[in-house]
TrEMBL record:
Protein name in the entry: 5-formyltetrahydrofolate cyclo-ligase
Gene3D superfamilies, sorted: NagB/RpiA/CoA transferase-like
Similarity comment: family membership: Belongs to the 5-formyltetrahydrofolate cyclo-ligase family.
Keyword Metal-binding attached: yes
Top-rank lineage group of the source organism: Bacteria
tRNA processing listed as a keyword: no
Keywords: ATP-binding, Ligase, Magnesium, Metal-binding, Nucleotide-binding
Lineage, top ranks: Bacteria, Pseudomonadati, Pseudomonadota, Alphaproteobacteria, Hyphomicrobiales
Species for this entry: Shinella pollutisoli
């Protein structure tokens, strides 16, 4: 089995486990994430944080984003423009969000495009060394590459539920490791965030 095939099998297995969680467990887990990381994530003044509007059975990071905004973060959401490109549009208080394609929600085209300092990254599976499996399209890997090509070094915080952890994720050369992982049971810094 190739690494890509192993990743697909792990992705399907872990997403099925996440889908099997009750809505109440997902809500409680999402709120626990705020308690674990809402004050623990380092936020120098003006830090730009990319969150996401949850789709399917993802953790809901909107309460965490609200806490980070209250601490002074500027927020943005990823917007998938096409099969290759994500941009990060600023999420202002009271501004509308709209369907932006590929099942996602975000600010419309009138919103400013920002380069995030911290990305809250949704994922399918992760291991304790910070390797992750996304949803298979490579959007975040390409977005991170583009940010790095601009001289940016965004901190990557994987967002998942405990049931999505696996012993080992097969890694490939293009994969980008996470700096930290946030689940309902805690905030684990893998690579010290400076």
């Amino acid at each position: 089995m190739t690494p890509k095939e192993r990743k697909a099998a792990i992705r399907n297995e872990r997403l099925a486990l996440r889908d099997a969680m009750t809505p109440e467990a997902r809500i409680e887990g999402s709120l626990a994430m705020v308690e674990h990381a809402g004050d623990a994530i380092a936020l120098p003044p003006g830090t730009v944080v990319s969150g996401f509007w949850p789709i399917r059975s993802e953790a809901d990071v909107r309460p965490l984003m609200a806490r980070l905004r209250a601490r002074g973060a500027r927020l943005c959401l990823p917007v998938v423009l096409d099969r290759e490109t994500i941009v990060f549009r600023e999420l202002l208080p009271g501004a509308p969000v709209v369907k932006v394609g590929f099942g996602t929600t975000g600010p419309g085209p009138e919103a400013a495009v920002l380069d995030p300092d911290i990305l809250l990254v949704p994922l399918s599976a992760f291991d304790r060394s910070g390797h992750r499996i996304g949803y298979g399209a490579g959007h975040y890997d390409r977005a991170i590459d583009r940010l790095r090509a601009k001289g940016r070094a965004p901190k990557l915080i994987g967002i998942a539920f405990d049931c999505q952890e696996v012993a080992s994720v097969p890694s490939e050369p293009h994969d980008v490791a996470l700096d930290a992982i946030l689940t309902e049971s805690g905030f684990r810094v893998l690579n010290p965030v400076s």
